[in-house]
Specification:
Layout (H helix, E strand, L loop, with lengths): L4 H4 L3 H11 L25 H14 L1 E4 L23 E4 L31 H8 L6 E5 L4 H11 L7 H4 L3 E6 L2 E5 L8 E5 L1 H11 L12 H11 L4 H11 L5 H4 L1 H15 L5 H17 L2 H24 L18
Parallel strand pairs: 1-2, 2-3, 3-6
Antiparallel strand pairs: 4-5, 5-6
Helix pairs in contact: 7-9, 9-13, 11-12
InterPro entries: AN11006-like (IPR038883)
Length: 339
């Protein structure tokens, strides 16, 4: 057999660096998915030694994408992802509704019919228990963006509606740690893994806009490209609505038109600045933002932003032409804008 110089001439540390270079993927991976021309994991099939060296590197670096089907106790193997449960470190669970098999055992109002497995139960206690059995799991993110009702039921259950539920007995808590992001903790689970329930598009887009230091009422130079990217990559409706709030915060009318969200946003910043636990403030702000997004369409958000910018420009022109006149109070501008 010919000598494999990769294994015999290169030190192990250098081989690991090579594995890190070729096995790091930017997006979560669906292990059955193959995209022609894209990076792949064929190096893992080179030989047994390379496989044993590279496999831990692969799972250390990447997030594995799964669905509720992958945890159902009554599965159809064709519907499941071949997850290496003994290896996975980082997990992203999308399509968090019940599995295809168990969905037929569920009726309205989260009522469960005989036959539904524990992992697919609406309370999610069986699902979380299944996560705790992944021996090397470090982080698990459950994206509830398309399953708001299901998450609401889980959250209400964890918060103690019914003193005999499994979450109350286990000392479980759901703490809001960001916009649309909740940390799950339990006295029955070890510190690892970290389990979070996240509205991923909401949380990502909010944080993306918050990080724009140059953002003002009139946006940023790359506004059009940024919004189009977020619409295509994350969600069609959220970017315009959240962009309105971030831009409007720099308007003279901010405290008049968006009084409630302005106060809650300030509460979060005050808690962070003074070292207090911001959980309750994040929770209140998340709920208010969710209500705002439900009440307004994308067209409403775009029109509101245009009106705010036009009113701000008119005010600036007024003050430049008549600097000696007193500035108009914010309430004097409200009539021209949506509420």
């Amino acid at each position: 057999m010919a000598e494999c110089f990769f294994l015999t001439r290169l030190p192990a540390e250098l081989r690991v660096q090579i594995y890190e270079h070729i096995l790091a993927f930017q997006r979560p991976l669906k292990l059955r998915q193959v995209v022609a021309g894209a990076k792949n994991t064929s190096v893992l099939r080179a030989n047994r030694q390379i496989h044993s060296e590279a496999l831990p590197v692969f799972f250390d670096l990447n997030i594995i994408l799964a669905t509720r089907n992958d945890f159902c106790e009554w599965p159809d193997s064709q519907l499941q992802t071949p997850i290496r449960r003994d290896q996975v470190r980082h997990l992203l669970v999308k399509h968090f509704g019940q599995s295809i098999r168990c969905s037929s055992f569920l009726s309205g109002n989260n009522m469960v019919l005989p036959g539904c497995c524990r992992s697919c139960h609406p309370s999610a206690d069986g699902f979380i228990e299944a996560l705790s059995h992944l021996p090397r799991l470090q982080t698990a993110v459950i994206d509830y963006h398309h399953h708001q009702r299901e998450f609401g039921f889980i959250k209400a259950t964890i918060e103690g509606i019914g003193s005999t539920n499994v979450y109350s007995r286990a000392g479980c808590q759901m703490t809001c740690i960001g916009i649309g992001k909740y940390q799950f903790t339990s006295g029955l689970l070890p510190p690892a893994p970290s389990i979070t329930f996240t509205d991923s598009p909401l949380n990502y887009i909010w944080n993306r806009f918050s990080a724009l230091e140059s953002l003002g009422l009139f946006g940023v130079p790359e506004e059009k490209a940024l919004l189009e990217y977020l619409r295509d990559d994350m969600d069609r409706a959220l970017p315009d609505k959240l962009y309105l709030l971030h831009c409007a915060r720099h308007s003279v009318l901010w405290l008049v038109i968006f009084q409630r969200v302005a106060e809650l946003w300030q509460d979060v910043e005050d808690d962070l600045a003074e070292g207090r636990d911001p959980g309750a403030s994040y929770e209140a702000l998340t709920q208010d933002i969710s209500g705002f997004m439900a009440r307004h369409s994308v067209q409403d958000a775009r029109m509101q932003l245009q009106l705010l910018r036009a009113e701000e420009a008119r005010l600036q022109e007024w003050q430049s032409v008549e600097p000696q006149l007193p500035a108009l109070a914010p309430e004097d501008h409200r009539g021209a804008l949506l509420t």
